[in-house]
Design a protein that fits this description.
The structure holds two protein chains of two kinds. By secondary structure, chain A is mainly alpha-helical. Helices cover about 70% and strands about 0% of the residues of chain A. Chain B has a single domain, classed as MetI-like (MetI-like fold, Orthogonal Bundle), CATH 1.10.3720. In chain B, about 75% of the residues lie in helices and about 0% in strands. In chain B, helix 2 packs across helix 5. Chains A and B meet through helix 1, helix 2, helix 4, helix 5 and helix 6 of A and helix 1, helix 2, helix 3, helix 4 and helix 5 of B.
Chain lengths: ~300, ~280
């Protein structure tokens, strides 16, 4: 931005060029963002007239233990997803970043889940994990023949696993790109010093990847607040309410129970959490950047 | 590039881990394809991981007879329209953001950056209200417009980052030749950013093609169903006919898979370049 502004000076293009994109974005994202706050203070069944509700929806949402349950589930999914996906995609990214025919083939195959829709993935895993005809029939092993999605204790972990299956490829791609930007001379110097693979990984690869780690983590954490399609098709929030995470709770309140006001309260909580997380993480990132400059 | 390090010893641990994840990735895919080739009767009795004795395409026929092609064409219309709108308006915005002067250009860029953090779920209720008020509910346009709106921020940011790398002298010399902004866009920017445009187009296309929430909430009738929603409804329609449901899954993936095979290099290298900074 700095250079562009200085060079073009008075002859820059007219702002009207950005108008169509801004208009689209305003009508379907910015205005609705304000609208959802207003809607949270209205009673609306989705079809009929709206009436003023004041803070009644907020009061009932905050009194409802279901809200805290959904929020807690979302936090669990977020933390577990990060813990599962980060090490896997980091290591895979490092593995695939190196040249070599078999690594290239691996990279191609790892990418497959990115092509499938959440609905397709959910349906595939639902069949695969079914106790009557899935992989429980394939191996005689006792521990594989569980009702994976039917048990309240297990379902959440299975959901986290399927989410990882879907999203690890994308983050692997990020890490692969990150590793390829590390100057090779660093490794050559380490080699001369006699550092082994493990020490090179810990002292060169990991520190050099810190921005990639921050980028990937931000996308992962903020993204995990919005997992919906996969969980909706896979478990619909069940068994009981064992996987009824916040976005699902919102959808069911709004579009199944026709309580749009209440659902809007949950949507506002979702936006708040997402923005707080994004801002917090970008603070963290810029803090990291500052200290890097001093350290260098 | 990092390949040379410690290359004298094979990375056994890494290789094993990589193969394990490969197995985890491929097992469900293998299971889905295999099961889709089973007859409904042979389904419960056979080992799900062994090839069927008599593979059959009956499930595929059943799915194709149940309006699959209509859902496919709906998905194609929605995806192409969304990508066309998104890329064209985003390219204009990105050009303005990079070449424009003053505070407004910077502010515009910040708006799109902020837009990256707005979750789609959070605004779905007001969007539903807007769409019904505009009498667009249950039309393909109801999916296209908000999908484009949500694809725009990332598209602008990626295109702008790419445009920033174009040397300013190129623009200057064209301006000295008397070229206006439209001519610079067409004869300078467009050819230069083509790789980036293809990358974001593919990425946006993939997102829209697989999109579920907007179609779920903003359409209703089978006529307007797109593929992911169709899969979901096949689930209810075929109930116990798992091979048919999984055949639908395979069919819904084939078009993307074909595209991926054709444009893999471009897609993956573009994605890694676009995000890896």
């Amino acid at each position: 931005m700095k250079t562009g502004a200085v060079e073009t000076g008075r002859t820059g293009p007219h702002p009207v060029m950005a108008a169509p994109a801004l208009a689209f974005f305003a009508v379907f994202a910015l205005v609705p963002l304000g609208g959802v706050v207003v809607l949270s203070m209205l009673n609306w069944d989705g079809i009929g007239a709206m009436t003023w509700a004041g803070l009644a929806n907020w009061a009932s949402a905050l009194r409802d233990p279901g809200t805290y349950h959904a929020l807690w589930l979302s936090v669990q999914v977020m933390v577990l997803s990060w813990l599962v996906q980060t090490p896997i995609s980091l290591l895979l990214g490092v593995l695939v970043a190196a040249r070599g025919r078999y690594r290239a083939v691996l990279g191609v195959l790892y990418f497959l889940p990115m092509l499938l829709s959440s609905a397709a993935i959910a349906i595939a895993f639902k069949a695969l994990l079914d106790p009557n005809f899935g992989m429980s029939l394939a191996f005689g092993a006792e521990w594989l023949s569980q009702d994976w999605l039917g048990g309240a204790d297990l379902a959440l972990y299975v959901v986290v696993f399927v989410i990882a299956w879907q999203f690890v490829p994308f983050h692997t791609l990020l890490y692969q790109a990150g590793v390829r930007q590390i100057p090779r001379s660093l490794y050559e110097a380490a080699e001369i010093d006699g550092a082994g693979r493990m020490r090179q990984f810990l002292h060169i690869t990991l520190p050099q990847l810190r921005y990639t780690i921050i980028t990937s983590s931000t996308l992962m954490l903020v993204g995990s607040l919005t997992y919906f399609d996969l969980v909706y098709v896979l478990t619909a929030g069940g068994p009981g309410e064992a996987t009824r995470i916040l976005p699902l709770d919102m959808y069911l309140h709004g579009f199944s129970a026709n309580q749009m006001g209440l659902a809007s309260v949950l949507a506002v909580i979702l936006v708040g959490a997402g923005l707080a997380l994004a801002l917090g993480l970008s603070k963290l990132a810029s803090f990291g950047r500052g200290s890097q400059l001093e350290g260098a | 590039m990092a390949a040379a390090r410690a290359s004298n010893r094979p990375n056994v641990l890494g290789g094993l881990g990589g193969l394990l994840w490969l197995l985890i990735v491929l097992l469900p895919v293998y299971y889905v394809v295999l099961t889709s080739l089973r007859s409904q009767t042979g389904f419960y009795s056979s080992n799900p991981l062994l090839p069927p004795d008599e593979p059959t395409l009956d499930s595929y026929r059943l799915v194709l007879e149940n309006d699959f092609l209509r859902y496919l064409s709906n998905s194609l219309v929605v995806t192409f329209a969304t990508v066309a709108i998104t890329v064209s308006v985003s390219l204009l915005a990105a050009y303005y953001v990079v070449r424009g002067s003053g505070r407004i250009a910077g502010l515009t860029y910040k708006v799109f950056l902020l837009g990256l953090a707005i979750p789609l779920q959070a605004v779905i209720i007001p969007v539903y209200y807007l769409i019904t008020r505009a009498r667009l509910y249950d039309t393909l346009l109801a999916i296209i417009l908000p999908s484009a709106a949500f694809a725009i921020p990332l598209t602008v940011v990626i295109l702008a980052n790419f445009l920033r790398d174009v040397p300013g002298e190129l623009f200057e010399s064209m301006r000295l030749d008397g070229a206006g902004h439209w001519r610079m866009l067409v004869s300078l920017v467009l050819p230069l950013v083509r790789p980036a445009v293809i990358t974001v187009a593919v990425y946006d296309g993939l997102t829209v093609w697989n999109g579920f929430l907007f179609p779920l909430i903003l359409t209703q009738s089978p006529d307007q169903r797109v593929l992911p929603l169709a899969l979901w409804s096949f689930q209810g329609q075929f109930q116990v006919n798992i091979p048919a449901i999984l055949a639908a899954v395979v069919l819904s993936t084939l078009p993307v898979l074909a595209l991926y095979i054709l444009g893999r290099k471009q897609l993956v290298s573009g994605l890694t370049a676009g995000f890896g900074r």
